[in-house]
TrEMBL record, chain B:
It is a multi-pass membrane protein. It holds the Pfam family ABC-3. SUPFAM superfamilies: ABC transporter involved in vitamin B12 uptake, BtuC (SSF81345). GO terms for cellular component: ATP-binding cassette (ABC) transporter complex. This is Metal ABC transporter permease.
Length: 344, 386
C-alpha cells in the first residue's frame, strides 16, 4: 500500500536500502537489552532504518552523488556493519542470541499471535494516517513545489511518509526477510500502476494485489515441503506484475502491440485509398471502373485491404474492376485535406 | 603474522582493487544499484550450475553465475524500455524475483549439500586460505587468490585497453556514438566485467561486501576529486586500506571479516562525507552560510545605494527596515566595513567609492548575467563562484 507512494516517488529501491539498513538496529537493540523481545528489536530496526533513510537524503541533497550511489552505499555499509555486530554477538556468551539471523531471511512460521496483533495495529494506524493526510500526501507526491506554496509543511509530510514506509518495511522484515522486502513493497504497487492512473485506485489495487500474493504464496508454500514462505510470496507477486505488464488494457504490452498493428493496418488502408483517389481524380466520373491490376505495383495494396475498403463501402468491386463510391471519394478527399492541414 | 593472515589480507586487497575499478564507472554512470541487483541475482545461476556439475568449485558455476548477472541487466533494461516503470523499480522487481527462484531451488533440491544462502550472501573470508589450489600435488596458494587475481588482471587489461572509450562513453554517450564507439558494447562490456567480478569475489567475501567495495570507495573518491584517473586511484587506495584495516578490526573483535571491512569503509566514507575539502558536508554548510551573508551584504549595499536620505541610512533604522536580526546585521556591517565598502559616521552609513563601484558592477551582473562582468570579484566572494 505504502509502496504506491514509494513507486511514484521514484524511491523504489529505498525499500531495499531500508530493509538492509535495519539490520544494525536489530543487532544494537539486542546488544543493549540482551533480550530477544520483538518490540525492542523492531524499535531498533525502525531507528536505524530512519537514520539510513535520512542519511541517504542528506547525501543526495548535499553532495553531487546520485541517488543510486547513495542507496547502494547506505545499503551495503549498514548491512556490513550489522553483520559485524551479529557475528560479534554470536561470540558472546548469551543463550538468547540464536535466531537473530532469522530476521535476515524471514520466517513467517515463527510469527506468534502477539506479532500478528502488532502488525494489525500498525497497519490500522497506517491506514488511519493515510486517510487523514490523503490530500497532503497526494499533492506532495505530484507537485512538491506547489505544496510548499500552499503553506503545507512539506518537511513534516515527507518525514511522515518516510517513517511509515520504514515502519511497514521493518514489520515486513519478519515475514519475508531483508532481500525480498523490497519486492513486497514494489511489486503490488508496480502491478497496480499498470491498471489505473488514479492514486486512490492504485493504492487500493496495490493493497489487494499484496494481500492476494500473500495468501496464495502462503498457501503454495504450505502445500509443499521445504518451500520457505517469503520467496514464494515474492514469486507470486512477480507473476502478478508480469500479468499486469502484459495484459493491462491501457499500458500493457499486449494491447500496445495490438494497437500498433491496428495503426499500421489503418495506415495501409489510407494509403490505398489515397492512391485510388489520385487515379479517380483524373476521371470525370469518380465511379469509373479501373482494373485491379493498376494497384499491383503499389506497395500498400493487398487483397485484404481492398476487401476492407469494400466492407466500408468506400469501393465497389465488379468483375475484376474497382471503382470509388461517392462516400469513398469524399473520405479520401478529406483524408488528403487533413494531411495537408497537419503539415502546415 | 602467519601466512594464512597474509593470504587473507592479500585476497581482500585484490578483491577491493578488482571491485573499485568497475565500481568507479558504475557510480559515474549512475548505475550503482545494478551491482546490488547482480550480486543477489547470481544465486539462481550458481544453483543451476551446481545441479549441472555437482561440484561447488567448478568454473562452470562462475560462468553461469556471470551469465545470470548479465541476464539481470538485460531484463532490467528490457522492462525499463517498455516504459511501464522506472529504472529503479525495474531493478527492484527483477532481482528479488531471481533471488527467490534461487532460494526456492535450493530449498527444494539441495537441502543436504553445502550450499547455503548465508554463505552466498555473506561469504567467509576466514576460510578462503583453506581452499587451496593443488596442481599435481603442488600447493600454489589459495584458490580464491588465483580466481580473483585472474579477474583483476583481465579487468586491468580491459581498463587500459579501453580507457579512452570508457571515459568518453561514461561522460558523453552521444559523443561516443558519434565517434563510432558503440556505447552499447561498452555498456554490456562493463556489465559483464562487473558481473564476473561480483561472482569471482562473492565466493571470498560475500555479495554484500562486493556491493560495498564497489560503491563505497568510488563514492568517497568522487567526493574528493573530479579527475577520472585520480578517482580510480583514490578508490583503489581506499579499498585496499579498508580491506587491510578491516581485517585487523575483525581479528581484534573476533567478528566477521566482511562485516568489519564494510564498517571500515563506512567510517571512511562518513569521514570524507563530513570533511572533504570542497564537497564535504561541513564545507558545504560553511559555503552556504558564506553565500547567505554575501547575499545579505549585496542587499544591504543596494539598499544604501538606493537611499540618499540620511534617516534611511541610520544604523538603527537598517535593523527594522531590512528586517534582519541584530547578529546578522552586525555580521553584514562588519563584513562591509572590513572590505572598505561602507563608512560609518555618527551612526549614518554611507557607501565608499569602492562599495559604490562594487554595487554598480553587481547590478550590471544581475541585469546582464554575463560572466565577464564579475571576473575580478570572483576571488573575493564565494557568491560569484559558480
Amino acid at each position: 500500500m505504502l509502496g504506491s507512494f514509494a513507486v511514484l516517488r521514484k524511491q523504489s529501491l529505498l525499500g531495499d536500502a531500508i530493509s538492509h539498513a535495519a539490520l544494525p538496529g536489530i543487532a544494537i537493540a539486542f546488544l543493549i537489552t540482551g533480550a530477544k523481545d520483538t518490540n525492542t528489536l523492531l524499535l531498533g530496526a525502525l531507528i536505524s532504518g530512519l537514520v539510513g533513510t535520512f542519511w541517504i537524503q542528506g547525501i543526495i541533497s548535499k553532495t553531487h552523488l546520485k541517488s543510486d550511489t547513495a542507496l547502494g552505499l547506505i545499503l551495503s555499509l549498514f548491512f556490513g556493519f550489522g553483520m559485524l555486530l551479529l557475528t560479534y554477538i554470536q561470540k558472546q556468551p548469551n543463550a538468547n542470541q540464536a535466531g537473530l539471523d532469522k530476521y535476515l531471511f524471514g520466517q513467517a512460521a515463527t510469527l506468534v499471535e502477539s506479532d500478528v496483533w502488532l502488525m494489525s495495529i500498525v497497519t490500522g494506524i497506517c491506514l488511519l494516517v493515510l486517510l487523514l493526510f490523503w490530500k497532503e500526501f497526494k499533492i506532495l507526491l505530484f507537485d512538491a513545489d506547489y505544496t510548499k506554496t500552499l503553506g503545507f509543511n512539506t518537511k513534516f509530510i515527507d518525514i511522515l511518509i518516510t517513517t511509515f514506509i520504514v515502519l511497514a518495511i521493518v514489520l515486513g522484515l519478519q515475514t519475508v526477510g531483508v532481500v525480498l522486502m523490497s519486492a513486497m513493497l514494489l511489486a503490488p504497487a508496480a502491478a497496480a500502476r499498470q491498471w489505473t492512473n488514479s492514486l486512490s485506485m492504485m493504492v487500493f489495487l496495490a493493497a489487494i494485489f499484496g494481500a492476494f500474493s500473500g495468501v496464495f504464496g502462503t498457501a503454495i508454500s504450505a502445500s509443499q515441503n521445504n518451500l520457505s514462505t517469503g520467496p514464494v510470496i515474492v514469486i507470486v507477486a512477480g507473476i502478478f506484475v508480469l500479468i499486469s505488464f502484459v495484459f493491462s488494457p491501457g499500458r500493457g504490452l499486449l494491447f500496445k502491440q495490438i494497437r500498433f498493428i491496428k495503426n499500421r493496418r489503418d495506415l495501409k488502408l489510407h494509403k490505398t485509398l489515397a492512391f485510388m483517389y489520385h487515379i479517380a481524380k483524373t476521371h470525370e466520373d469518380i465511379s469509373h471502373p479501373h482494373t485491379i491490376k493498376i494497384l499491383n505495383n503499389f506497395q500498400g495494396y493487398t487483397k485484404g485491404t481492398l476487401q476492407k475498403l469494400v466492407d466500408k463501402r468506400y469501393v465497389k468491386l465488379e468483375s475484376g474492376n474497382w471503382s470509388l463510391t461517392n462516400e469513398g471519394y469524399k473520405t479520401a478527399a478529406n483524408l488528403y485535406n487533413q494531411q495537408s492541414e497537419n503539415n502546415e | 603474522m602467519s601466512s594464512a593472515q597474509l593470504e587473507i589480507q592479500l585476497i581482500a586487497s585484490l578483491v577491493a582493487i578488482a571491485c573499485a575499478i568497475p565500481g568507479t564507472f558504475l557510480v559515474l554512470r549512475k548505475m550503482a544499484m545494478i551491482s546490488d541487483a547482480i550480486s543477489h541475482s547470481i544465486l539462481p545461476g550458481i544453483v543451476i550450475g551446481f545441479f549441472i556439475t555437482q561440484d561447488l568449485n567448478s568454473p562452470v558455476l562462475i560462468l553461469l553465475a556471470a551469465l545470470t548477472g548479465i541476464i539481470t541487466v538485460v531484463l532490467v533494461e528490457y522492462i525499463q524500455k517498455t516504459g511501464l516503470v522506472k529504472e529503479d523499480t525495474a531493478i527492484g522487481l527483477v532481482f528479488p524475483a531471481l533471488f527467490s527462484i534461487g532460494v526456492i531451488l535450493i530449498a527444494k533440491n539441495a537441502n543436504d549439500i553445502h550450499l547455503d544462502v548465508d554463505a552466498v550472501l555473506l561469504g567467509e573470508l576466514a576460510f578462503a586460505p583453506f581452499d587451496r589450489l593443488l596442481v599435481s600435488g603442488v600447493d600454489l596458494g589459495p584458490k580464491s587468490l588465483w580466481i580473483i587475481g585472474t579477474i583483476l588482471l583481465i579487468t586491468i587489461t580491459l581498463l587500459i585497453a579501453f580507457f579512452k572509450e570508457l571515459k568518453v562513453s561514461t561522460f558523453d554517450a552521444g559523443l561516443a556514438s558519434a565517434l563510432g564507439f558503440s556505447p552499447m558494447v561498452i555498456h554490456y562490456g562493463l556489465m559483464t566485467v562487473s558481473s564476473v567480478t561480483t561472482v569471482g569475489a562473492f565466493d571470498a567475501v560475500g555479495a554484500i561486501l562486493v556491493v560495498a567495495l564497489m560503491i563505497a570507495p568510488a563514492a568517497s573518491a568522487y567526493l574528493i576529486t573530479n579527475n577520472l584517473k585520480r578517482m580510480l586511484a583514490y578508490a583503489i587506495c581506499f579499498g585496499v586500506i579498508s580491506a587491510v584495516s578491516g581485517y585487523w578490526l575483525a581479528h581484534w573483535l573476533d567478528a566477521s571479516i566482511a562485516g568489519s571491512i564494510t564498517s571500515v569503509l563506512g567510517i571512511l566514507f562518513l569521514t570524507i562525507y563530513l570533511f572533504a575539502p570542497n564537497k564535504g558536508i561541513i564545507a558545504i554548510l560553511y559555503r552556504e552560510k558564506q553565500q547567505r551573508t554575501e547575499v545579505s551584504l549585496l542587499t544591504f549595499l543596494l539598499h544604501l545605494k538606493n537611499h540618499t536620505d540620511e534617516t534611511e541610512r541610520h544604523v538603527n533604522h537598517l535593523n527594522e527596515h531590512i528586517n534582519w536580526q541584530k547578529v546578522r546585521s552586525k555580521t553584514v556591517l562588519d563584513l562591509a566595513l572590513k572590505n572598505n565598502m561602507i563608512r560609518i559616521e555618527n551612526k549614518i552609513v554611507s557607501l565608499t567609492e569602492k562599495g559604490n563601484d562594487f554595487t554598480t558592477q553587481a547590478i550590471d551582473y544581475i541585469i546582464t548575467n554575463e560572466d565577464s562582468q564579475i571576473e575580478g570579484m570572483k576571488d573575493d566572494f564565494f557568491l560569484f563562484r559558480g
